[in-house]
Specification:
The protein has about 575 residues and is α/β, with parallel strands linked by helices. Helices cover about 30% and strands about 15% of the residues. It contains 15 helices and 23 strands.
Length: about 575
């Protein structure tokens, strides 16, 4: 067997482990090469790089035109890292950039055929800039890496390593506000105290005479004056004045600096608060800002936090992609569907959503997620034992666009605000299980007795673990890139909760089906589409999948990809 064919066969064998359900009938690594080749002969799939088609005999054949852009665009699986809680490289208890570097092999080792890493294709780092808080959203200096997290050289090294592995790295950019220790605010407050209207920082932040401030917004006194500054999140987070062109240019210079450094884009924090209560005006700012970034780098990755309904995010989509909060949290569509819900309702929503945002901007795409650092962790309301956590992952990772995994979600880590009402409980230390000294953040009160009893080390060694499940799920998505970037057609099955969609790219189609229920379901594809499929490329979940002509039988809490 040639080395090239051996690599492709190994990639296919990793995918084929999913055909027998969640954990498979044997532990990874126990099958012989001959057994793997026998499995490989049972189906035709795309290899994980998206570069070649594997025929039924395991040979690599012609490159697929439909996949020529796979791995190069922005429709990829991202992994959010709350930096201070992820991995500690120097023993001080705080996660840092060197810790992220040390864990790259866990996230993506750069070898699609190895099957040894999670396989994520992008990383979102929460703010790394100099800041007095543990979360770093009140920035003191945008041009300095907080010493708790490392140095600018560490960031440069991380960028280079990510690019070597085809990982896109984006930074969390909180520019709605700064911290009160920021030199901009210090100069602003001094100019206000002196009354020097010629000072370039005099109008850098939003302020009003005391007693004349608009209702419904939050303000704090500027010491030594009769004026107040706007601070809707915290007194330590003064809001910048984006009616001032100098402020706009200063914020743009920050992004340009990091694009020049090599980062691939940004997550924009609190995007709808640029002009509090005025979505049209805030969206206008982002149109200008992102247009400027695209002029520098046309493929810049941008996604905005507009924590609101779809009707509000519609205002922003002409400028920038937005996270889909309708699908997130305990009451979101992902969780509701995973809890034995109707997949047809979920896929119909996704279809309408895509049609709507593409009408607003032709290159828009969905950004689905279950939870992030501001929300209670998914494993607290979607248990692994019930299979609901697995199904939730299937629903959003095997969906178009760019899904985001919150660090530790792949292990089932728990965490919630609880009675202490602190977000620190949602940002607990990653459970490595190998001596990593990263500790829970300042203010955390989460009871360790409520935490899971396994670690990353445990789950990596367990072929039936949630981590192994996520790894196989991401591999299936990578092997079928039409899911991420194809035209989406929701399938409307009647009288059943089983549902799915067809994704088509350059004339190549895949069909994705989900059964969230606790029983096997059989459907006839001829009832919902004229398109025909010849094989089950992959299945993942508690059961199995079978295709007989146009008839599909899908096991309980199982998803399948048909080609």
């Amino acid at each position: 067997m040639t080395t090239f064919k051996r690599i492709l066969t190994a990639a296919l064998a990793a995918l084929m482990l999913t055909a027998s359900g969640c954990g498979g009938s044997a532990e990874p690594g126990t099958e012989t090469e001959a057994e793997q080749e026998t499995e490989a002969a049972s189906v035709t799939v795309y290899d994980k790089t998206g570069a070649y088609v594997l025929a039924a005999n395991g040979e690599a054949i012609i490159p697929s035109p439909a996949l020529s852009a796979a791995g190069e665009d922005n429709r990829r699986v991202f992994y959010e890292i709350f930096v201070g809680s992820f991995s500690d490289s120097d023993g001080d208890g705080t996660g840092d950039l060197r810790g992220v570097i040390n864990r790259l092999d866990y996230l993506n080792d750069g070898d699609p055929a190895s099957g040894l890493s999670l396989g994520v294709e992008g990383i979102w780092l929460t703010p790394v800039f100099l800041s007095p808080s543990y979360h770093k959203y009140n920035v003191t200096d945008y041009y300095e890496i907080d010493p708790q997290f490392g140095t600018m050289d560490d960031l440069k090294e991380l960028i280079g390593l990510c690019h070597e592995r085809n990982i896109k790295l984006i930074l969390d950019l909180p520019i709605n506000h700064t911290g009160t220790e920021n030199a901009w605010f210090t100069a602003f407050a001094a100019a206000r105290r002196s009354g020097d209207e010629s000072d370039p920082y005099y109008d850098f932040y939003t302020c009003f005479p005391a007693g004349e401030e608009p209702a419904g917004r939050t303000f704090a006194a500027i010491e030594g004056t009769d004026e107040v500054y706007e601070c809707n999140f915290s007194e330590s987070m003064p809001e910048l004045n984006y009616d001032n062109d100098a402020v706009r240019r200063a914020a743009l210079d920050v992004a340009k600096y990091y694009l020049d450094l090599g980062v691939d884009g940004f997550r924009f924090d609190a995007a709808k608060y640029i002009y509090f209560g005025d979505n049209e005006k805030s969206a206008g700012f982002w149109q200008w800002y992102v247009d400027e970034l695209r002029a520098i780098r046309p493929d810049v990755y941008t996604v905005a936090e507009v924590w609101d309904s779809d009707g509000v995010t519609d205002v922003y989509f002409p400028a920038v992609n937005c996270f889909d909060f309708t699908t997130s949290q305990v009451s979101g569509l992902i969780a509701e569907t995973a809890k034995y819900g109707n997949v047809n309702a979920f896929t119909a929503y996704v279809g309408r959503y895509i049609q709507n945002i593409e009408a607003l901007r032709s290159d828009a795409f969905p950004t689905l997620f279950i939870t992030n650092h501001d929300q209670d962790r998914a494993a607290g309301f979607l248990t692994v034992a019930s299979g609901q956590m697995n199904m939730a992952a299937n629903l959003y990772i095997l969906s178009p666009g760019s899904p985001f995994i919150y660090y530790g979600e792949e292990l089932g880590i728990r965490g919630s605000r609880g009675a202490a009402n602190t977000d620190a409980n949602r940002r607990l230390a990653m459970l490595w299980g190998d001596g990593d000294t990263v500790a829970d953040p300042e203010g955390a009160t989460y009871d360790p007795a409520n935490q899971i009893g396994t670690t990353a080390a445990d789950q990596i060694a367990d072929g039936g673990s949630l981590y192994s499940y996520y790894k196989r799920l991401i591999a299936i998505r990578a092997a079928n890139p039409e899911i991420a970037r194809g035209d989406y057609e929701a399938l409307a099955f009647a009288d059943t909760k089983l549902g799915g969609f067809i994704a088509t790219a350059d004339g190549v189609s895949v069909c994705v089906l989900h059964n969230t229920t606790q029983r096997d379901i059989t459907v006839d594809l001829a009832d919902v589409t004229d398109m025909t499929f010849s094989s089950v490329a992959a299945s993942i979940g508690a059961g199995a999948a079978a295709l007989d002509g146009t008839t599909v039988t899908l096991g309980a809490q199982t998803s399948a990809v048909l080609r």
